[in-house]
From TrEMBL:
InterPro entries associated with the record: Acid_Pase_AS, His_Pase_clade-2, His_PPase_superfam, Histidine_acid_phosphatase
UniProt cross-references to Gene3D superfamilies, sorted A to Z: Phosphoglycerate mutase-like (3.40.50.1240)
PROSITE patterns assigned: HIS_ACID_PHOSPHAT_1, HIS_ACID_PHOSPHAT_2
Protein name, entry field: Acid phosphatase
Region of interest (Disordered), ranges: 67-86
Family: Belongs to the histidine acid phosphatase family.
TM ranges: none
Amino acid sequence: FWRSSNVEEEGQGLELKLVQIVFRHGARTPISRLPPSIEQATWSSDLVKTVPHTLIDYRVVSLDGGAQPPSPVEDSYQKHGPHKGGARWGQLTTLGQQQMFDLGQLLRKHYVENNRFIDPGYNPQQVYVRSTNIKRTVESARCVLAGLFGNSQSDREVIQTSTAEEEIFYPNRENCQAMRPLIKTAWGLLDTALPGYREDRLKLQHILGIQEARQFNIFGLRDELTARKAHDLPIPENLAALEDVVEQRATQCMAALVSGVEDGHSHALRLSTGPVINLLTQNMQRAQNSENCHKLHLYSGHDTTLIPLLKALGIFDDRWPPYAAHVTLELYQDAKKNNFVKVLYLEEEKQVQGCSAVLCPFEEFKEAMATVALSHKAFWENCKIDQKKASQITV
């Protein structure tokens, strides 16, 4: 995060103008179920108790300020019924709530206490919050706000959400038709594109008692193992021995699905995160020329939000983003109105691919992102057309 010593090294008189943070939700219960051959974990109500100091007075609204839209993703979880023990699918746990509260307190330390960038109390003119319309991400945003501002604010805090049909903060394959054949193609290439993957896949499927189907849900397996480990729940010995293999292969597969198996900024990557890159860039553009913009933007999302974003920025470390992982984009301006972007991941400064330094001139950053950024209009036009023609529409 921002430190005065770093700024002095880069140049004198830099003013922090805008902070945007895209984060993954906190620890949660699994969103898939392992085959019957694997003993179910018990997700009891004790693991999902509400943490009192994360409770705030808030409301969830649509992007235009209306009523909260329906959530078909959340509805789909409930169709499965509860986990053994009673907890819901994908439910933010007590641990997850505390993780997000801790993130909020960290942001308070950096942007309230250390440099007084924003007011110590919630100010809707300064702070903008958006979440995907899923309970765990909305509740994660709530916990971050509680850590950042406390739980006794005079203004009711607002979290905005999009409809599922227009969601951009995860790869929206349900509503972006052009994404489906790209994902199908990537799935079909994994066995040959990733050396040794087929052998590992077959080994895992044998343990799980799954027939030799190519589209083995390694993400569900990783999700289950990670959730159990975070909450100190037992992991079967035969799977525990292959935990590192599952982690490595799941990460490789997800990176391939959201960005394609070819090098560079592929069309798959543009559809996975192009509108997010465009939104973040446009926010920075506005902040340069106006004093009336929000100073802090908080975006509550998923691992599938962060992986393509990290890939687009050229800073993906080939590791699955942990619970509460966050990407920070800071915009600075010098006395001559020159603007610079600094990107941090998990609190470490990163040099964006295509930038000449960590503190990257804004126009240089914008040019580096031009190959992946898609405007809202261009994104949805790309979603509806043949992928061979899609690269022609960029604005």
